[in-house]
Target: DUF72 domain-containing protein
Amino acid sequence: MTGRIVVGMAGWVYPDWRGTFYPKGVTQKNELAYASTHVTSIELNGSFYSLQKPSSWVSWRDATPDDFVFSVKAPRFITHIRRLDDVHEPLANFFASGILALGGKLGCILWQLPPSLEFEPYLLERFLEQLPHGTPAAVALAEERSARMHGREHLETDADRPVRHALEVRHRTFDSPEFVELARRYGVAIAFGDSAGKWPVIDEATTDFRYARLHADEKKYPGGYYEPADLDRWAATVTGWAAEGLDSYVYFDNDTKVRAPIDAMSLLERL
Model:
């Protein structure tokens, strides 16, 4: 079976995109609807900075086509402030905040670790064993939310669906067979990043999907965007993953040069 491929960008609300990617006349309220007709997925990053309201998740779900997919960047409170330690209640609050309202449009949850966080096997395993891998388990976790979430939670799922997780690591101590084996044991993908060597590149399939974040760092890509030959190589890579039966989530995160949606659409054309 050939894997499914979705391609998009990290976020969609950027003033510099107005008049470039977004035509004149497209209001901010309609930007998501417009973007979702040009790419097949978006990595939602507002959730990284704060918990979102259930009504927001519902509005994002309803503004996009039926086959659209969101990946969700998990809260920095868990990854950067608590640094994966003592996070049961924050995890419950995150899953209670409305993410499950996405229904079948929930693609993957991205856990981006800070560059200063080193690989500590015990700490990481204790975190990974708490992650729900299905919507019933996610609901059960959400029900253990803190009191402050009462009245602003979403505690149901429309179906028994898988919940996928990907880890983006940024400290070179993670570049080890022990980390790869741990990710494989818990069915978590290792995000395959393109950052011109700034962070470790771990090209390993550890579950039934791959997750790629393409930053187009200017040290490697002058101008902050991908040349046609670069996109050709990525198209071949992602096609190879699909041929192995792996689903693929691919996101361009080079928004500062107003290139992310252009590069995403260019890759989709090649696919």
